[in-house]
Design a protein that fits this description.
- The radius of gyration is 21 Å and the shape is globular.
- It has a seven-stranded parallel sheet, with helices on both faces. Strands 2-1-3-7-8 form a five-stranded parallel sheet. A three-stranded antiparallel sheet has the order 4-6-5.
- It is an alpha/beta fold.
């Protein structure tokens, strides 16, 4: 069973099977009731995407049955213990088309009677597209590209464009040197950026293709011209970057986030953008998606994308 539309789902190998179900609308309460009523008994595997938690506004408008909760539209909601307990006993496998596990309670899945549910994700598949998006946001935020871009479309040529910055010679601090962080390092190196990173521990040489310097969190915050966030979302990393951390950063820093929105305290970021402490921000993720802090939308020194970092044919096929 596929939860929410999966753009790459149509393929000769899968289309040959007639025992597939597609769930595109409804709401969490209905999904729970259907599970408990045995509607999905016999389902062995579920394929899900990020959008199965919260259907975007366009999908909700097209499907009135989608439940609105705090301006967010739930299809199934998070796979928490309540939902996992309601899933059919025949279910053996959940395939998450994404890099993180923050939307699925893995312990609840593996502990479900009678045999548990195996959970997979696709971390390597999203490395290139997410790193490409991070680099796009990095360059755009350094150049404050939003101002001339929107002015041009409004018939105002460059508008009130000021001078931006080149990446050459700047220090890039990568917070989280996993697959995406390493892919970004490879892409940033040809721009002659000095690259440093912080992890819980140094990575192996094969995970550090540019021989980036391993530094403490404090040094990364204090000495980086650009900070790009590539951490998983957990209780430990929620609001990992707040006022205290931003105040430690260099004046005029650029902040990039393609990981998860709640890692940054958005109110603190807005205040830092308005004060000039932060020169620019490039964001593909937000604290309360699909809601976006009005201060981020209003600020001309932001480059914003609606969580589209992995939205490429190549990534979906891989």
């Amino acid at each position: 069973m596929a939860l929410s539309p999966i753009p790459h789902r149509s393929h000769p190998d899968t289309d040959a099977h007639n025992d597939q179900q597609q769930l595109n609308d409804g709401n969490r309460a209905q999904f729970l009731d259907d599970c408990r009523a045995g509607i999905y008994d016999g389902v062995n595997a579920i394929a899900r995407t990020f959008d199965s938690v919260e259907v975007r506004r366009a999908a909700a408008a097209a499907a009135p049955a989608v439940q609105q909760t705090n301006n967010r539209y739930q299809l199934t909601g998070r796979f928490d213990p309540e939902l996992v307990d309601a899933l059919p006993k025949s279910l053996r496998f959940i395939a998450h088309n994404g890099a993180g596990y923050d939307q699925i309670d893995v312990d609840a899945c593996t502990g479900k009677d009678p045999l548990g549910i195996s959970v997979s994700n696709t971390p390597g598949a999203v490395d290139a597209s997410t790193a490409n998006t991070a680099l796009y946001l990095l360059l755009g935020a350094l150049r404050r590209i939003h101002v001339p871009s929107t002015a041009l479309r409004a018939g105002q040529w460059r508008g009130a464009m000021g001078l931006g910055h080149d990446p050459e010679g700047k220090t890039l601090g990568i917070l989280g040197m996993g697959g995406i962080g390493g892919a970004l390092a490879r892409r940033a190196a040809p721009f002659d950026m000095k690259i440093q990173y912080h992890n819980r521990r140094p990575v192996a040489p094969e995970q550090n293709p540019t021989n980036a310097d391993y530094v403490s969190l404090e040094k990364l915050l204090r000495t980086s011209d650009v900070i790009s966030i590539h951490l998983p979302l957990s209780d430990r990393t929620r609001q990992f970057i707040g006022r205290k951390e931003i105040n430690m950063m260099k004046d005029g820093v650029v902040i990039i986030n393609t990981a998860r929105g709640p890692i940054i305290d958005e109110q603190a970021l807005v205040e830092a953008l308005e004060s000039g402490k932060v020169f620019g921000a490039g964001l593909d993720v937000f604290e309360k998606e699909p809601e976006i802090h009005e201060g981020l939308i209003r600020n001309k020194n932001t480059v914003l994308l609606p969580h589209t970092g992995t939205a490429t044919y190549e990534t979906m096929v891989s």
